[in-house]
Design goal:
The complex is a heterodimer of chains A (359) and B (405). By secondary structure, chain A is α+β, with helices and mostly antiparallel strands. Helices cover 53% and strands 13% of the residues of chain A. The radius of gyration of chain A is 20 Å and the shape is globular. Chain B is an alpha+beta fold and 405 residues long. In chain B, helix 1 packs parallel to helix 3 (69-81) and helix 4 packs across helix 6. The chains are: A alpha+beta (359), B alpha+beta (405).
């Protein structure tokens, strides 16, 4: 038994952390955060050159052919550093193509996606929180019409992988006729969102796979959001502990006060055990298929709920500075809001987990 | 990442299964033995095969096996599946025996370890006092040498099982001139000694598990001390560590969840089975999220220990995790029980395996989960430990200034 990360997985995390520290230090993150557009193509291309855009893709298309756990540990690191990059949706878009695309389709799209030359995103949600394959209503055809909500980096992506009725996927070029991209001002300024509408827009359907591809894209997405949430929440615990060790009141550091110590302990107890929960959910997707669907649902609902609470506690623990735009806790607070909603709120996945248990 | 136990351990599982198949339940004439004698016979055979008392040397009655966390886990799994008895439960096996093996004199090990692990003698723990709970090291029960004996005066409290125990291991202030922690010794006392008065305390559940123990000129031999004079605090740390380990256990929490799902299927809310109530369903999943995180964190801790690495922060959270889960289970059970939740508790708690818990059992769990939060270091003390040892926050100044200093 070795339920632990490998040396390679640790190295991957260190490499990503070092790159973000160098290329997107806090001052640069602030620039992007306050910027109108909020996307840095050079930063993303640099990450792609480290191999981050193709961790899970087949070697013949320039990927590294690694597992969901490898994708997830990188998501944890990016989450802990609030990296303003399209890792999540780009990974899911290329995953959909690698699962459901024909050889020809894979050959045309995956090399550019693995190298980072092409940016793709997923267009899944429809109005009213309809994130899941069974919810998708846009009819399959040579052209499509309809609207997708909360498309991550929708303003910047070259390709949209669109979820269609019956759990099918199709690929739309951003310059295709009838595509309308509307910027939505979201709370989380590290992951910009758009509403993308299609009006008799030409689409290329992915030829293989059906339900299975859509199910796996959903479950990998749930695990990546879980990993991101874990990374962000742990960072908030660390930041709050650091603050408590440095901030002085009544002549001592506030970390001396039991009220605050207990709050910080509770935050750590809420989140530290979920490291193993997201690991297991990721591991299950490659090795324990009979548990993977339900475990992904539990992980996403549980960890994003914990992240939300830890973010509130961390803000409180920082006092006035926690409530300011200038303070850093608000950036993660808003990532917690994103993680909670993206791919379905905790309520949605708690209901699914209950159904899947046969309760 | 590898969650399998490996071929060697799976082969070993096969051996354990074959042993259990042949020996439990007992066969032939052995099956006619009383429950007590049958259990004793089975344990002897299991020790002879190296399945029980694995970390205890043969000369003290153990099976003296090389430490192997995976084999230990396989044995627990297979014995649980066969409903076969493990080592006798109780504070003697869990806490005194490891302490004696670590710190005891040779004669103490010979005299006490074997009978304790065979279930022939039982122990109680004399630590807490009316004025010394979380601040245990402030304890005031006094021990003085008189000839070849210690003479002990004072009072212990929350002493579980004292009304039945044969012996007590206890902390006593023997060096009044020394500073707080350095003034304490770890003494053993025969509970039949004159001067011991055990008075049961009635718990909120109505049962009487723990006691007050009054010690009035109680005499115990001078060499019934574990470690040297003034080393009792350090000696006792060995045992507290064992107690924390024993309480952090995800298998128990998973059992609770299963019972809770059964309860939700057996009761109605608004004319429909409670299991169909959206609020109940979501809370069940929420609780399962905590339990799964706890369970998989156990895999992580086991893996770290197998590699000889420190599990880190997670390693000191087990008790608080279990406590928090117990609280959540209790709240949902009461929600499901509705008006039935006003009933009187039943002393037996959730009852034994195989019987469906009654409302009264659940009401006991509702209260008993608080007992778990308090026993072995209260939840608030656990939070201090996590903050100070885990997160590196400063120690509370008040903790170093109390009576006994």
């Amino acid at each position: 038994m070795d339920f632990d990360l490998s040396d390679e997985q640790r190295l991957l995390q260190e490499t990503v952390a070092q790159f973000i520290d160098n290329e997107c230090p806090p001052a640069r993150l602030r620039e992007l955060y306050d910027d109108e557009v909020g996307f840095d193509p050079v930063l993303w291309k640099g990450l792609a050159e480290l191999g981050l855009a193709g961790i899970h893709l087949p070697g013949e298309y320039g990927g590294s052919e690694l597992e969901v756990l490898d994708l997830a540990v990188a998501a944890e690191t990016l989450g802990s550093l609030s990296a303003p990059v399209p890792y999540l949706s780009h990974s899911l878009a290329s995953l959909a193509i690698s699962l459901a695309g024909s050889d020809d389709q894979k050959g045309r799209w995956l090399p550019g996606l693995a190298s980072g030359d092409t940016l793709a995103t997923v267009a899944l949600a429809e109005e009213g929180g309809r994130w899941l394959p069974d919810d998708w209503t846009i009819e399959v055809g040579a052209t499509i019409s309809g609207t997708k909500e909360i498309v991550e980096f929708g303003e910047h992506a070259d390709l949209f992988v669109v979820g269609l009725a019956g759990g099918r996927f199709g690929v739309v070029d951003r310059n295709a006729t009838g595509v309308e991209i509307q910027r939505i001002e979201g709370a989380d300024r590290t992951r910009r969102i758009a509403r993308v509408s299609f009006d008799s827009t030409p689409i290329e359907l992915l030829e293989e796979g059906g339900d299975e591809a859509a199910t796996r894209v959903r479950d990998v997405g749930l695990v990546l959001v879980s990993a991101d949430a874990f990374g962000g929440a742990m960072k908030l615990v660390d930041m709050s502990v650091e603050y408590a060790k440095n901030r002085e009141q009544f002549g001592v550091t506030i970390g001396h006060f039991q009220g605050l110590k207990h709050q910080l302990s509770n935050m750590a107890v809420e989140i530290e055990p979920t490291r193993a929960l997201y690991w297991y959910a990721a591991h299950a997707l490659d090795h324990v298929p009979e548990e993977s669907e339900r475990t992904a649902a539990i992980a996403k609902s549980h960890i994003t709920e914990r992240f939300q609470q830890v973010a509130r506690d961390a803000t409180e623990a920082h006092g006035g500075i926690g409530f300011t735009w200038e303070g850093d806790t608000q950036i993660l607070f808003k990532r917690a809001m994103f993680d909670r909603v993206f791919l379905g709120t905790p309520r949605v996945h708690q209901n699914r987990a209950a159904d899947l248990a046969g309760w | 990442m590898d969650l399998s136990y490996g071929q060697e351990t799976e082969d070993y599982r096969g051996e354990v299964k074959r042993f259990l198949g042949a020996n439990w339940p007992l066969k032939g004439d052995d099956a006619k033995l009383s429950r007590e004698d049958g259990t004793k016979l089975f344990r002897e055979r299991a020790i002879a095969e190296g399945y029980l008392c694995r970390n205890i040397p043969k000369k003290y009655g153990g099976s003296e096996q090389a430490a192997d966390a995976l084999r230990g886990q396989v044995i627990r799994e297979e014995f649980a599946m066969a409903h076969a008895p493990m080592e006798p439960a109780g504070i003697g096996t869990m806490m005194l025996v490891p302490t004696l093996l670590d710190r005891g004199e040779e004669w103490q090990k010979e005299k006490f370890v074997g009978p304790t692990i065979r279930g022939e003698i039982t122990w109680c723990q004399g630590y807490s006092e009316p004025g010394s709970g979380s601040d245990l090291a402030s304890l005031m029960t006094k021990g003085e040498i008189d000839g070849d004996e210690w003479v002990i005066n004072g009072q212990k409290i929350w002493t579980s099982g004292a009304q039945r125990a044969d012996y007590m291991f206890c902390l006593v202030r023997t060096e009044p001139a020394e500073k707080k922690h350095a003034g304490i010794s770890y003494l053993l006392i025969d509970m039949k000694t004159p001067g011991i008065d055990v008075r049961p305390l009635r718990q909120m559940t109505g049962s009487s598990e723990f006691n007050e123990v009054f010690l009035n000129d109680v005499r115990t031999p001078k060499d019934w001390i574990v470690g040297k004079r003034g080393e009792g605090w350090l000696v006792s740390r060995t045992t507290l560590k064992h107690e924390r380990n024993s309480i952090g256990n995800a298998a128990q929490s998973l059992g609770l969840l299963g019972a809770l799902v059964d309860l939700a299927k057996s009761r109605d809310i608004d004319g429909k089975p409670a299991i169909e109530d959206p609020g109940v369903r979501r809370e069940l999943v929420r609780i399962e999220g905590y339990i799964r995180a706890h369970q998989y964190s156990g895999f992580l801790q086991t893996s770290k220990r197998l590699k000889g690495e420190n599990p880190g922060l997670i390693g000191i959270m087990n008790k608080l995790n279990s406590t928090n889960i117990g609280h959540k289970v209790a709240h949902l059970a009461m929600e499901i029980l509705g008006d039935e939740g006003l009933g009187a508790p039943r002393a037996a708690g959730l009852g034994t395996a195989g019987t469906r818990p009654s409302a009264a059992n659940w009401i006991s769990q509702y209260m008993g989960s608080l007992g778990i939060a308090i026993a072995g270091g209260t939840a608030n003390v656990q939070r201090n430990v996590i903050a100070e040892r885990g997160l590196g926050l400063p120690r509370d100044a008040a903790a170093n200034q109390s009576k006994g200093n």
